[in-house]
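Supplementary Note 3. Input sequence used for the single-chain structure prediction.
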Amino acid sequence: MIRVALPAHLRTLARVQGEVTLAVEGQATQRSLLDALEAQYPMLCGTIREHGTQQRRPFLRFFACQEDVSHEGPDAALPEAVAAGLEPFLIIGAVAGG
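The predicted structure, written as discrete structure tokens, is reproduced below.
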């Protein structure tokens, strides 16, 4: 089971608290993880990835094992610690300040 930490606005939309856990078929990649997330929580479709292109939405970043993996290919394998559920996959919303 893969652990996913969502930003507050997506947790509210999905009606969850804290992390969610997902079963991912085959190799754990960003694409397979996000496919499983959207299948389990269809209200998140289009909020993390664009509907047509499946590209990451602006102002969202992906982190795995404290590293930004936002610009890695969608089919690149996630770190073993994330795939094994030892570390969460983080979806982080942009923060602006001034």
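The longest helix spans residues 30-40. Strands lie at 2-5, 20-22, 60-64, 67-68, 89-93.
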